[in-house]
UniProtKB/TrEMBL annotation:
GO terms for cellular component: membrane. It comes from Gossypium tomentosum. Residues 27-477 form the Major facilitator superfamily (MFS) profile domain. Belongs to the major facilitator superfamily. Sugar transporter (TC 2.A.1.1) family. Gene3D superfamilies: MFS general substrate transporter like domains. This is Major facilitator superfamily (MFS) profile domain-containing protein. It is a multi-pass membrane protein. The chain crosses the membrane at residues 20-40, 82-100, 112-131, 137-159, 171-192, 204-224, 285-309, 321-343, 350-372, 384-405, 426-446, 452-473. It is found in: Membrane. GO terms for molecular function: monosaccharide transmembrane transporter activity; symporter activity. Keywords: Membrane, Sugar transport, Symport, Transmembrane, Transmembrane helix, Transport.
């Protein structure tokens, strides 16, 4: 892999050299396999919950309703709190694990936190594949959730810290790309295992999660920790050596000194979570939290969790439902590739706003078709309309996959300063998992009560988030992290009012470096 060199000038006028080295690309690819595991867990649950053998063993009540839709109607046959708990327990466990992951990310480093995530994933996979009862099944999902909490905390941080600014967006989206590949892989596996006779196909589906789990674990053993993390923990010589290796040049002294100084300033912040609540950090916190809430309120996870169940509800039949889920999974992957190419070219705001229009139109069309064609006790969805529903869901998924999916993780990871980055990432992951849990636990019940209106509900949220983007989310394309205060927040029509007390707060914290252009801490990638 050829390495390309480039440099940029910092506010202080110091020019830093760097190359896009093979070790950076390889490290980012290995780290992003955490997304592969997360995606597989998202995709596999919807597939196995539509398999008759799985339902018969663990959810006999749902099994009887699916065999006789006349009991509860099309929209309500999967409405079961236990079935939803199987899916959502992973995210509740991930939410809890995030609090511990914040500590390990800071004290043990990004690399070891990813390794811990790998071990949790492996243990959860073993329990799920060998499950004999519902308790064992859900305990396995809880262990997988712990893995998700640790991986989602460490991987986006690692990617944003090790990647050069020029390609930071694209490399960071590798995490989201792997999430989509994991979902597609799970859909393909479910499509194959559903045809296995003998009642053990679901075990194979759950057990094959061991492949991405092993990839993440091996990857965590092979990658180097980020220079930020090493210097933050006082391992200066090692941090310098890693910085030299990932930058592909010996001229790293100015950048290294900047990083050491930023780390010193960050250490003066004794309570990062308390500091996160300070007025000058309000814009990053509000946007990070809003992005996670909005990401879930698009309805994407409801569709990706339960795609086979949803298509079966619409009268596709089990086999066609799994096949349709594969199609949406493939669209998800291809659209995320579009995001990797375009995010550092057209910018974050353009992708978010365009996707808002696309998602709104597709959801409204789906709702109209279902309102007239899918009733409680009729399967009147003709082939033409069925194809149109799949096309519209693919249109919706593609819009999400090149916008709110990857950017929901990218924007928070590149806007929080070093002194609050670990705490900020922790809050980001917590809010995401909390709302993922809520949607996963409630979706099948909402589908039962709202019927076609579920798509109108989510489209209403799309309007709200698009308005929020238009007025409150600034463009961060190609802006070094330590320049965010001067070039983004102080220039924004609304957020600049929260920067008024920045000088006072920084002096109180002993942050003299503000005058040298380091108001927001430092990320080594930001100097490239």
């Amino acid at each position: 892999m050829p390495a390309g060199g480039f440099s940029s000038v910092t506010p202080a006028g110091v020019e830093f050299e760097a190359k896009i080295t093979p070790i950076v690309i390889i490290s980012c690819i290995m780290a992003a396999t955490g997304g592969l595991m997360f995606g597989y867990d998202v995709g596999v649950s919807g597939g196995v919950t539509s398999m008759p053998d799985f339902l018969k063993k663990f959810f006999p009540v749902v099994y009887r309703k699916t065999r006789n839709p006349g009991i509860d109607g099309n929209y309500c046959k999967y409405d079961n709190q236990g079935l939803q708990l199987f899916t959502s327990s992973l995210y509740l466990a991930g939410l809890t694990a995030t609090f511990f992951a914040s500590y390990t990310t800071r004290r043990l480093g990004r690399r070891l936190t990813m390794l811990i995530a790998g071990f949790f994933f492996i243990a959860g996979v073993v329990l799920n594949a060998a499950a004999q009862d519902l308790a064992m099944l859900i305990f396995g999902r809880i262990l997988l959730g712990c893995g998700v909490g640790f991986a989602n905390q460490a991987v986006p941080l690692f990617l944003s810290e090790i990647a050069p600014t020029r390609i930071r967006g694209g490399l960071n989206i590798l995490f989201q790309l792997n999430v989509t590949i994991g979902i597609l892989f799970a859909s393909l596996v479910n499509y194959g295992t559903a045809k296995i006779t003998g009642g053990w196909g679901w075990r194979l589906s759950l057990g094959l999660a061991g492949i991405p789990a092993l990839l993440l674990t091996v990857g965590a053993l092979l990658v180097v920790d980020s220079p930020n993390s090493l210097i933050e923990r006082g391992r200066l010589d090692e941090g310098k050596a890693v910085l030299r290796k990932i930058r592909g040049t010996d001229k790293i002294e100015p950048e290294f000194l900047e990083l050491v100084e930023a780390s010193r300033i960050a250490k003066e912040v004794k309570h990062p979570f308390r500091n996160l609540l300070k007025r000058r950090n309000r814009p990053q916190l509000v946007i990070a939290v809003a992005l996670q809430i909005f990401q879930q309120c698009t309805g994407i996870n409801a569709i990706m969790f339960y795609a086979p169940v949803l298509f079966d509800t619409l009268g596709f039949g089990n086999d066609a439902a799994l096949y349709s889920a594969v199609i949406t999974g493939a669209v998800n992957v291809l659209s995320t590739v579009v995001s990797i190419y375009s995010v550092d070219k057209v910018g974050r705001r353009v992708l978010l706003l365009e996707a808002g229009v696309q998602m709104f139109i597709s959801q409204v069309i789906i709702a109209i078709i279902l309102a007239f064609k899918v009733k409680d006790h009729s399967d009147d969805l003709h082939k033409g309309f069925a194809i149109l529903v799949v096309v519209m869901i693919c249109t919706f998924v593609s819009a999400f996959a090149w916008s709110w999916g990857p950017l929901g993780w990218l924007i928070p990871s590149e806007t929080f300063p070093l002194e609050t980055r670990s705490a900020g990432q922790s809050v980001t992951v917590c809010v995401n998992l909390l709302f993922t849990f809520v949607i996963a636990q409630a979706f099948l019940s909402m589908l039962c009560h709202f019927k076609y209106g579920i798509f109108l509900f989510f489209s209403g949220w799309v309007v709200i988030m698009s308005i929020f983007t238009l007025f409150l989310i600034p463009e961060t394309k190609n802006i070094p992290i330590e320049e965010m205060t001067e070039r983004v927040w102080k220039q924004h029509w609304f957020w600049k009012r929260f920067m008024d007390d920045d000088e006072v707060a920084d002096v109180t914290n002993g942050d003299i470096a503000k005058k040298n252009g380091h108001a927001n801490g430092f990320d080594p990638t930001s100097q490239l």
